Amino acid sequence: MEHIFIQGKNRELMPLVLLHGTGGDEQSLLQLAEIIAPDASVLSFRGDVSENGANRFFARYADGSFDLASLKEKTGSLIAEVKELAPKYEFDAARVVAVGYSNGANIAANAILTNDASFQKAILFHAMPSGEEMPDFALNQTAVFVTAGVNDPLVNAAGSQALIDGLQARGADVGALWTENGHNLTLAEVEAARDWYVAQHD
Q: Name one GO molecular function term (predicted).
């Protein structure tokens, strides 16, 4: 996948892996990274699936449901690419924090839930479960921060709660922030994500 890497001023900080929403690109979440961890290294991807010209990380059907075969394939590719790029850019793949919004958050969540060699930490803005039957390996070493909007027309509250419940049921440490907003990302969510990120270093 197309990507950019920005070397952080502080290599002790956990690197961020940025995963944009539908129609975004590798530049879309850079401002968020500046708020969450301005001195951390950043690896930002551009999804290589096109939906009527809009970049996505995996395909979906016309009704909005996930193409689970595409999701599985692209999830594996994403995990492999992060590990492949780690020595090139001299960061520890085991310490990265996936930061995803919408489509990007969905693939990050799927990676955590389906691959035990995936992300150990993640910030998921407006994510939902895939609906696929999940393996049952433990997530005791995993920490996730989830934000959701109770009025989100694309990811309903029940879907967000199902994702949170699914992570917690397998032992993940889950922090959550609910807002009254819709699918748009708010400054309050990003600032809460920053606070969560800082707490992970304590």
A: hydrolase activity
